[in-house]
């Protein structure tokens, strides 16, 4: 009897040892960021990522901006990380060295994709392919904080990598700068595993408990400012919390990354319905409507236009470059808010120059969540249920419900930058 119990105990111990790595599996991560471009929040999110770098296997940091940002902006944050590294490594041997991070920092696409959705390979897109083809059974999580250009390019150049990828995209305003790359993926790679977070991510800085030291400004003042070189760099970029891209990282830190419908720090999502697109062969009119974050595709008939014809679709702060082909002038536009949009075409073709149009963007009905698309079986997006909206942002409450928990955790991480781990 004693022998049997001993053998059973030994078998149980072996089972625990075998399963232990599974329970604490580290996630492979590539970040594609428009850091240094049009919004300082990517700098804040990069600081957050690096203080949690011991919990993740970071395999790539790709500069993929629309705007002025470049690879050097990532390297600037790593320089701050290097100053704090002596303290950070006292808490964990798993923090990557600054030089390791520099080696995996790459330059991605710096221009918007053309109408076809891709242009040419970049150092960033090639690195995505290389990492995806590494012999590793774990999926490769690509956290996209800007445009989708490098993801679209990688999928175009090597479609076989698709099953390996898990993409969490902070869409919303980023989607308006990347409609052509987005639509290319929708039409040519619908089986991609994708979280499309157009509004949920706003829960990181909108709503939730913000009293006392949890306010966007007071938290930074009390728990980030003065906390090492990374903390001071964070504050130099913006003195209050934005960090709109951070939910993509937080989703891997606490939750069930394999099931986006389950709650976690990075939000909770619903299976995507058919990706909304409105196609018109004329300029939009006031009675036309489009779903917020949907794609408006214009295909305006043209005849006998000169070879050097150029046109832009001017709307708010955007000048969308037109594409002439097959006797048509084509544009794609994505509305980031529920409101009316006015368009004007500027062109060196007299018959096109000055043409105007108007369209209204509307929020989807909550009922649309019942129409999950069989075509996009691995695609998730913001819940349209108003019960989870914050200040009109769908799904934001699925993030900000965790606000105190994830900010307290972040504050403890920032202390690592300032002080080494106590010996006792």
TrEMBL record:
Keywords: Hydrolase, Signal. InterPro entries: Ribo_hydro-like, Sde182_NH-like. GO terms for molecular function: hydrolase activity, hydrolyzing N-glycosyl compounds. SUPFAM superfamilies: Nucleoside hydrolase. Residues 1-23 form the signal peptide. Gene3D superfamilies: Ribonucleoside hydrolase-like. Residues 28-269 form the Cellulose-binding Sde182 nucleoside hydrolase-like domain. This is Inosine-uridine preferring nucleoside hydrolase. It comes from Mariniblastus fucicola.
């Amino acid at each position: 009897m004693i022998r049997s119990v001993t053998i059973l105990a030994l078998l149980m111990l072996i089972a625990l040892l075998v399963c232990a790595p599974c329970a604490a599996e580290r996630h492979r991560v590539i970040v594609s960021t428009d850091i240094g471009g049009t919004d300082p929040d990517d700098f804040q999110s990069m600081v957050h990522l690096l203080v949690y770098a011991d919990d993740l296997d970071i395999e790539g940091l790709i500069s993929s901006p629309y705007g002025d940002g470049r690879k050097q902006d990532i390297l600037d944050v790593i320089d701050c990380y290097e100053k704090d590294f002596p303290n950070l490594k006292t808490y964990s041997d798993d923090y990557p060295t600054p030089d390791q991070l520099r080696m995996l920092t790459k330059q991605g696409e710096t221009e918007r994709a053309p109408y076809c959705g891709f242009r040419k390979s970049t150092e960033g897109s090639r690195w995505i392919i290389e990492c995806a083809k590494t012999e590793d059974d774990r999926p490769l999580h690509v956290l996209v904080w800007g445009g989708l250009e490098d993801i679209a390019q990688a999928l175009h150049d090597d479609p076989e990598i698709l099953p390996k990828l898990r993409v969490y995209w902070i869409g919303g305003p980023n989607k308006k700068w990347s409609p052509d790359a987005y639509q290319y993926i929708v039409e040519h790679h619908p089986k991609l595993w994708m979280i499309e977070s157009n509004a949920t991510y706003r829960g990181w800085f909108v709503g939730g408990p913000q009293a006392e030291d949890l306010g966007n400004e007071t938290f930074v003042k009390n728990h980030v400012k003065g906390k090492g070189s990374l903390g001071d760099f964070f504050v130099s970029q913006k003195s209050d919390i934005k960090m709109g891209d951070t939910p993509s990282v937080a989703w891997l830190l606490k939750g069930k990354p394999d099931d986006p419908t389950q709650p976690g720090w990075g939000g909770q999502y619903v299976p995507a319905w058919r990706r909304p697109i409105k196609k018109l062969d004329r300029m939009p009119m006031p009675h036309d409507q489009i779903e917020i974050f949907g794609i408006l595709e214009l295909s305006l008939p043209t005849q006998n236009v000169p070879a050097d014809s150029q046109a832009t679709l001017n709307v708010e702060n955007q000048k969308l470059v037109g594409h002439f082909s097959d006797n048509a002038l084509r544009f794609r536009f994505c509305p980031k808010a529920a409101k009316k949009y006015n368009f004007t075409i500027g062109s060196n073709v007299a018959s096109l120059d000055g043409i105007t149009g108007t369209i209204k963007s509307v929020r989807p009905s909550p009922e649309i969540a019942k129409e999950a698309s069989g075509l996009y079986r691995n695609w998730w997006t913001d819940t349209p249920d108003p019960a989870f909206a914050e200040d009109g942002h769908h799904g934001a409450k699925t993030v900000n419900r965790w606000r105190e928990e994830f900010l307290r955790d972040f504050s403890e991480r920032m202390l690592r930058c300032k002080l080494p781990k106590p010996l006792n």
